[in-house]
Write a structure and sequence with these properties.
Elements lengths: L2 H31 L9 H24 L5 H27 L19
Helix pairs in contact: 2-3
């Protein structure tokens, strides 16, 4: 192997190591959500996001199953429900962003140094 090939291999190994360290960090933070330790992720956001996704799958499944027999009124009700759910979710996220941290400053959310590299 030439020097250039070795250098490429070392860069590849370093890149893979960086990716695995980020994946490791992600799973550690996910596990911290339900522990007493502070986590980068918000438990409430994870749970509301999961509920939103489940609700969306249910709504889309209902639409796929019922599209042949739906009237215009049914379709409008379905679309209205979708907009209400999406609006509520966005509203809750904006409320959480406006909350203050314990020092009275807006909660910036911060971020791990690992992701800022």
């Amino acid at each position: 192997m030439g020097k250039q090939e070795v250098s490429r291999w070392q860069k590849f190994k370093a890149g893979v190591k960086k990716v695995f360290s980020r994946i490791n960090w992600f799973f550690k933070e996910i596990l911290k959500i339900y522990s007493t330790e502070d986590s980068y992720f918000s438990k409430k956001r994870i749970e509301s996001g999961a509920a939103f996704v489940v609700g969306q799958f249910g709504m889309v499944y209902f639409l796929i199953q019922s599209i042949d027999t739906m009237t215009t009124q049914d379709l409008l009700m379905w679309a209205g429900t979708e907009f209400v759910i999406a609006g509520y979710t966005v509203s809750q996220i904006q409320k959480e962003k406006k909350r203050k941290d314990e020092n009275g400053k807006p909660d910036s959310g911060g971020g791990p140094e690992l992701l800022n590299e």
